[in-house]
Amino acid sequence: TNPYLLNYTISLHNTGWGLRVGAGYVYTANSSDDGITVTDTKMNDLSLRIGIEKAFQLSKKWSTGAGLDFIHNSNNDHTSTVVNSSFGGNTTDTKTTTINSGAGPMAWLRYAITEKILIGTEASFYYLSGKTDQTVTITDPSGFPTTTPTSTKTGSGSFSSPIVFFLGVKF
Questions:
Q1: pLDDT digits over 13-38, tens only?
Q2: Are 101 and 129 in contact (CB under 8 A)?
Q3: HEC string of 79-123?
Q4: What's the pLDDT score for residue 165?
Q5: Residue 3's closest CA among 24, 33, 27, 30?
Q6: Are 102 and 129 in contact (CB under 8 A)?
Q7: Residue 88 region by backbone torsions, left for phi larger than 0, else alpha for psi between -120 and 50, else beta
Q8: Cα(16)–Cα(67) distance, rounded to whole angstroms?
Q9: Which of 63, 64, 105, 114 is deepest in the core (most CB within 10 A)?
Q10: Cβ-Cβ contacts under 8 Å for 20 (sequence gap 6 or more)
Q11: How do 17-33 and 6-11 pair as beta strands?
Protein backbone atom coordinates (compact mmCIF):
# COMPACT_ATOMS: atom_id res chain seq x y z
CA THR A 1 0.00 0.00 0.00
CA ASN A 2 1.09 3.54 -0.61
CA PRO A 3 0.12 5.95 2.19
CA TYR A 4 0.59 9.04 -0.01
CA LEU A 5 -2.74 9.74 -1.68
CA LEU A 6 -1.63 13.12 -3.04
CA ASN A 7 1.78 13.61 -4.66
CA TYR A 8 3.23 16.66 -6.34
CA THR A 9 6.51 16.93 -8.21
CA ILE A 10 8.11 20.01 -9.71
CA SER A 11 11.11 19.43 -11.98
CA LEU A 12 13.48 21.44 -14.09
CA HIS A 13 12.96 20.23 -17.65
CA ASN A 14 16.53 20.84 -18.83
CA THR A 15 18.34 19.12 -15.90
CA GLY A 16 15.75 16.59 -14.66
CA TRP A 17 16.24 17.58 -11.02
CA GLY A 18 13.09 18.02 -9.03
CA LEU A 19 11.38 18.33 -5.69
CA ARG A 20 8.59 15.95 -4.66
CA VAL A 21 6.09 16.05 -1.82
CA GLY A 22 3.45 13.57 -0.78
CA ALA A 23 0.73 13.46 1.85
CA GLY A 24 -1.90 11.03 2.94
CA TYR A 25 -4.47 10.74 5.71
CA VAL A 26 -6.47 7.70 6.78
CA TYR A 27 -9.33 7.79 9.27
CA THR A 28 -10.91 4.52 10.35
CA ALA A 29 -13.76 4.02 12.80
CA ASN A 30 -15.10 0.60 13.81
CA SER A 31 -17.72 -0.38 16.33
CA SER A 32 -19.02 -3.77 17.42
CA ASP A 33 -21.55 -4.96 19.98
CA ASP A 34 -22.22 -8.65 20.62
CA GLY A 35 -24.54 -8.04 23.57
CA ILE A 36 -21.78 -8.52 26.13
CA THR A 37 -18.80 -6.62 24.76
CA VAL A 38 -18.96 -3.20 23.09
CA THR A 39 -15.82 -2.10 21.26
CA ASP A 40 -15.22 1.28 19.58
CA THR A 41 -12.01 1.98 17.66
CA LYS A 42 -10.90 5.20 15.98
CA MET A 43 -7.60 5.48 14.07
CA ASN A 44 -6.04 8.64 12.60
CA ASP A 45 -2.95 8.09 10.45
CA LEU A 46 -1.04 10.93 8.75
CA SER A 47 1.86 10.30 6.35
CA LEU A 48 4.12 13.01 4.89
CA ARG A 49 7.18 12.90 2.64
CA ILE A 50 9.42 15.38 0.90
CA GLY A 51 12.33 14.54 -1.34
CA ILE A 52 14.60 15.29 -4.24
CA GLU A 53 14.78 13.32 -7.46
CA LYS A 54 16.58 13.12 -10.76
CA ALA A 55 14.50 12.17 -13.81
CA PHE A 56 15.84 10.49 -16.95
CA GLN A 57 14.07 10.25 -20.30
CA LEU A 58 14.52 6.70 -21.66
CA SER A 59 12.51 7.19 -24.84
CA LYS A 60 9.67 9.35 -26.13
CA LYS A 61 7.16 7.41 -23.97
CA TRP A 62 9.28 6.00 -21.10
CA SER A 63 10.98 7.86 -18.24
CA THR A 64 12.56 6.85 -14.96
CA GLY A 65 13.93 8.56 -11.91
CA ALA A 66 15.61 8.07 -8.57
CA GLY A 67 15.90 10.15 -5.45
CA LEU A 68 15.89 10.46 -1.70
CA ASP A 69 12.80 10.98 0.47
CA PHE A 70 12.43 12.22 4.03
CA ILE A 71 9.42 10.70 5.83
CA HIS A 72 7.23 11.59 8.80
CA ASN A 73 4.34 9.40 10.01
CA SER A 74 1.94 10.05 12.87
CA ASN A 75 -0.58 7.47 14.10
CA ASN A 76 -3.14 8.24 16.80
CA ASP A 77 -5.34 5.28 17.75
CA HIS A 78 -8.02 5.01 20.45
CA THR A 79 -9.93 1.85 21.45
CA SER A 80 -12.60 1.63 24.12
CA THR A 81 -13.95 -1.75 25.24
CA VAL A 82 -16.84 -2.22 27.69
CA VAL A 83 -17.58 -5.73 28.97
CA ASN A 84 -20.99 -6.01 30.62
CA SER A 85 -21.77 -8.82 33.04
CA SER A 86 -24.18 -9.55 35.88
CA PHE A 87 -21.48 -8.36 38.32
CA GLY A 88 -21.06 -4.99 36.64
CA GLY A 89 -18.84 -3.98 33.77
CA ASN A 90 -15.19 -3.45 33.05
CA THR A 91 -14.06 -0.66 30.75
CA THR A 92 -10.70 -0.71 29.00
CA ASP A 93 -9.57 2.49 27.30
CA THR A 94 -6.41 2.27 25.15
CA LYS A 95 -4.77 5.33 23.57
CA THR A 96 -1.74 4.75 21.34
CA THR A 97 0.34 7.45 19.65
CA THR A 98 3.21 6.57 17.31
CA ILE A 99 5.46 9.15 15.67
CA ASN A 100 8.14 7.98 13.22
CA SER A 101 10.60 9.86 11.02
CA GLY A 102 13.24 8.67 8.61
CA ALA A 103 14.57 8.66 5.08
CA GLY A 104 15.51 6.42 2.20
CA PRO A 105 16.05 6.00 -1.52
CA MET A 106 13.27 5.62 -4.07
CA ALA A 107 12.99 4.95 -7.78
CA TRP A 108 10.17 5.19 -10.28
CA LEU A 109 9.25 4.21 -13.85
CA ARG A 110 6.57 5.98 -15.93
CA TYR A 111 4.91 5.52 -19.31
CA ALA A 112 3.34 8.49 -21.14
CA ILE A 113 -0.09 7.53 -22.48
CA THR A 114 -0.38 11.05 -23.88
CA GLU A 115 1.80 14.11 -23.43
CA LYS A 116 -0.08 15.03 -20.23
CA ILE A 117 -1.31 11.64 -18.89
CA LEU A 118 1.15 9.12 -17.39
CA ILE A 119 0.97 5.81 -15.60
CA GLY A 120 3.80 4.65 -13.43
CA THR A 121 5.04 2.74 -10.46
CA GLU A 122 7.65 3.28 -7.77
CA ALA A 123 9.75 1.37 -5.29
CA SER A 124 11.25 2.65 -2.05
CA PHE A 125 13.24 1.55 0.94
CA TYR A 126 12.76 3.67 4.05
CA TYR A 127 14.33 3.40 7.48
CA LEU A 128 12.14 4.90 10.20
CA SER A 129 12.72 5.44 13.89
CA GLY A 130 10.47 6.94 16.49
CA LYS A 131 8.48 6.43 19.63
CA THR A 132 5.21 4.77 20.63
CA ASP A 133 3.37 6.01 23.72
CA GLN A 134 0.46 3.97 25.03
CA THR A 135 -1.89 4.55 27.95
CA VAL A 136 -4.21 1.76 29.08
CA THR A 137 -6.91 2.66 31.61
CA ILE A 138 -8.96 -0.16 33.11
CA THR A 139 -12.02 0.76 35.15
CA ASP A 140 -13.43 -2.05 37.31
CA PRO A 141 -17.12 -2.48 38.25
CA SER A 142 -16.67 -0.30 41.35
CA GLY A 143 -15.61 2.61 39.12
CA PHE A 144 -11.97 2.61 40.25
CA PRO A 145 -9.61 3.30 37.30
CA THR A 146 -6.10 1.87 36.94
CA THR A 147 -3.86 3.58 34.38
CA THR A 148 -0.71 2.05 32.90
CA PRO A 149 1.44 4.23 30.62
CA THR A 150 4.18 2.70 28.46
CA SER A 151 6.68 4.18 26.03
CA THR A 152 8.66 2.26 23.42
CA LYS A 153 11.33 3.38 20.98
CA THR A 154 10.88 1.93 17.51
CA GLY A 155 13.03 1.39 14.45
CA SER A 156 12.15 -0.36 11.22
CA GLY A 157 13.08 -0.68 7.58
CA SER A 158 10.36 -1.05 4.98
CA PHE A 159 10.56 -1.94 1.31
CA SER A 160 7.69 -1.01 -0.98
CA SER A 161 7.89 -3.00 -4.19
CA PRO A 162 6.58 -1.60 -7.49
CA ILE A 163 3.29 -3.52 -7.64
CA VAL A 164 0.81 -0.62 -7.93
CA PHE A 165 0.23 1.65 -10.92
CA PHE A 166 -0.31 5.36 -10.38
CA LEU A 167 -2.04 7.83 -12.66
CA GLY A 168 -0.13 11.06 -13.21
CA VAL A 169 -1.15 14.33 -14.82
CA LYS A 170 1.34 16.90 -16.15
CA PHE A 171 0.53 20.59 -15.89
A1: 899 999 999 999 999 999 999 888 99
A2: yes
A3: EEEEEEECCEEEEEEEEEEEEEEEEEEEEEEEEECCCCEEEEEEE
A4: 75
A5: 24
A6: yes
A7: left
A8: 11
A9: 63
A10: 7, 8, 9, 10, 49, 50, 51, 52, 53, 67, 69
A11: antiparallel
